[in-house]
Amino acid sequence: MYSSRSGFVKRFRAVVALAVFIPLTAFAGGLSNSDQSASVSGVSNAGSVANPENASTIFFNPAGMSQLSGTNISLGAIVFEIDAVGRDSQTSATRANGDPVVGDGGGDHVKTFAVPNAYLTHEVNDWLDVGLGVYVPYGLGFDYGDAFAGRYIGDEIELVSYGVSPSFAVNSGEGFSLGGSINVLYADAEQRNPVDFSGIESRFSLPRGTLNDGYATLEGDDVALEFTVGLLWQATPETSLGLAARTGTEFNLKGTGTINNFPTLSASGLTQTTVSEQIEVPITIPQSLSVGLAHQWSDTLELLAGATWAKWSDASALSVVSREKTPAAFPAEQPSEEQVQSWKDTWQWRVGAIWQVAPTWSLKAGYLFDESPVTIETRSPHESFMRAIFPSIIRRRILCTGRLHSKASTTWCRGQLACS
Length: 420
Hints:
single chain; 420 residues; mainly beta; Porin; 17-stranded antiparallel beta sheet
């Protein structure tokens, strides 16, 4: 029954390769971390490209450095506490052989985490400023647990990127400023999930339970370059307009993929062993364009607005592929376009206000409307994977409030922020 004839072996390997098709989570709009300053986040980043409050303008619009005097340091950390609890009654999945998966909704699968940032700017002379930013632009992390009903398509993923951005800004002296950054990005990803081999049992008429589940562990990292160009125009003493563009880039994560209990054919018959291979996966960071407006309505009230467009249609959820000359466990090439996730371009809309209560106190509020690149209409045949990885693909509406306190005797400020 387990003949090593070439035709049967090729057919067996093809079925096994399909069983271990493992998409790696691609970055999504919900994974972009634009919270780089408690002060700016207090207005939901509204007008951030037109209203340089501190050194974090390096991230939003490097041209804003021209509006800062002397040397400026911005240090901070954003704590994310996300309430994401899977509901057992609304979670179901089916194995490759058609049997239902016994499991729960995954519980509270997103843990509390903190994201640090640090920015430094320096005024070289009246027309030139330089700066450096260290930050976390993208990230994702969740753990649904071993009993999650969707564990075969998404169990545990950790993905984080770090950015270092040397920057400059040039001031024309007539209300116009130009800035730019070289963004050196490092990304590291790990994914772990069980692998369902029940489809192989069905395909080759094996009794149920012949094959144990496998378990895949994937690790990869890469370094990529991205560029930011920004413009700032002080249209009137009360009104400023900003524009910032990011080129986007592509990571080609390379690392190791390991699957235990991997089915193989040998002279003694069908066995399950541990297989490790060198793997890679390309992940696209889309280009984006942000515009912003800041208007000083009165001595105590400033109004802010902004929008960001991101070309997520260039991105997709792609599978892990092998870098070996003779792959054993992972496919040798990406799936066809019909198999991958199709995404759409997105818009973010932001409005905010700053009320200067006293010389050393200000109150802030902001509202964000954020589209997801993944919708019901753009889901691929792998929509079950997308449901597991992105359980909330609806548009997000986020209201932020904050307060800023500065001491009159120093230039240091302390900010507090709350979002819901």
